[in-house]
Amino acid sequence: MKKDAGTVVAVSRSSVHEFSKPVEDSIELLAGLGVRDDAHAGVTVQHRSRVAVDPTQPNLRQVHLIHAELHDELRSRGFDVSPGQLGENITVRGLDLLGLPRGTRLHIGAEAIVEVTGLRNPCAQINGLQDGLMKAVLDRDAQGRLVRKAGVMGVVIAGGHVRPGEDIQVELPTGRPVALSRV
Questions:
Q1: CB contact set of 107 (below 8 Å; sequence gap of 6+)
Q2: Residue 134, CA distances (Å) to 29, 86, 118 in order
Q3: pTM attached to this predicted model
Q4: 24, 81, 154, 177: least buried by Cβ within 10 Å?
Q5: Is pLDDT above 90 for 127?
Q6: Where would you find the membrane-spanning parts of this chain (predicted)?
């Protein structure tokens, strides 16, 4: 069952391995690969730190999504952030990305489907954007467990163009939900 849950605010991509990605008018998602002309697209992992460990592992990080509400929170704490600067491909609003279970399918616009694989684990490069930003995207819950707030990662199930303003529908997986962990 699908339900309306959010809206695309911005889309970004970069053909080179840089931390931030420039905002585009639209991006094209390619099934099983990721974002066309993005450095992180591929069947196997493309993030340099992961390639160094095992270049044959499957790419569970084809698409990075961040909730615009995180940008709002960071700006209220004095950080100057905008879509694409934290390395995301798709910035969304009105969708609790961090609360989704693994395997959730996000139907974006008319064609694209992204399956959520896990939480983005922010790296120290984030402090290169602004000092203290790494600490700001990490938190602790009431039980003292680490909370990663820097968005979610996913794989492209069905390709298509994605543009700002498009609706996102959520299709939860069947069976017992599995909480997101870092990928």
A1: 2, 113, 168, 169, 170, 171
A2: 28, 11, 18
A3: 0.95
A4: 177
A5: no
A6: none
Residue 47: closest CA among 85, 37, 58: 58
30, β-bridge pairs: 34
**Closest residue by Cα to residue 172 from 108, 125, 106, 78:** 106
> Using one digit for the tens of pLDDT, what is the confidence trace for 61-119?
999 999 999 999 999 999 999 999 999 999 999 999 999 999 999 999 999 999 999 99
Written as six digits, the tokens of 160 are 């298509």
Which of the four CATH numbers 2.40.33.20, 3.40.50.150, 3.40.50.10490, 3.30.470.20 does domain 2-171 have?
2.40.33.20
Burial (CB count <10 Å: 0-12, 13-18, 19+), residue 34: buried
